[in-house]
Amino acid sequence: MQTTSTNIGERLCNKSIRDISWLLNIPRSTVSGIITKWKQLGTTATQPPSGRPRHMTERGQRILKRTVRRSHQLSAESIAKDLQTWCGLQINTTTVHRELHGTGFHG
Questions:
Q1: Rounded CA gap, 39 and 86, in Å?
Q2: Which residues of the chain have pLDDT under 70?
Q3: For residues 79 and 32, what is the distance between their CA atoms, to the nearest angstrom?
Q4: CB-based contact 99:61 (threshold 8 Å)
Q5: CA distance 96 to 52
Q6: CB 65 within 8 A of CB 103
Q7: How much is the pLDDT for 12?
Q8: Is pTM, for the whole model, over 0.85?
Q9: How many Å apart are CA 63 and CA 57, to the nearest integer?
Q10: What is the pLDDT of residue 16?
């Protein structure tokens, strides 16, 4: 953020993109991109990430892995109930299947 504000400030002082790049030791394409974004949007803030947020948190994934490693014979329903009691997450059994498959557990 410091570089961005310095970049914009230097541009407002009528410095060239080459001079700004040399002063801040960053590529000219980066300086040009920041200035273009600032001119178009009036800000250099990044956009929020696209897509829906994941339902299962990293903590929930760790607990899920630990649960499966301890006892391999648990059903997805019982694992979902355990996660609800430990984490407070309301998770469907298909979500449990999907998360387990993504972490490398099959069957």
A1: 49
A2: 1-12
A3: 52
A4: yes
A5: 18
A6: yes
A7: 60
A8: no
A9: 10
A10: 84
Q: Secondary structure of the chain in the HEC alphabet?
A: CHHHHHHHHHHHCCCCHHHHHHHHCCCHHHHHHHHHHHHHHCCCCCCCCCCCCCCCCHHHHHHHHHHHHHCCCCCHHHHHHHHHHHHCCCCCHHHHHHHHHHHCCCC
Are the C-beta atoms of 64 and 81 separated by less than 8 Å? no
- For the stretch 89-98, pLDDT in tens is 788 889 888 9
Closest CA to 91 of 73, 64, 68, 69: 64
Tokens of 91: 């998770």
User: Which residues make Cβ contacts (< 8 Å) with residue 38, sequence separation at least 6?
Assistant: 8, 11, 44
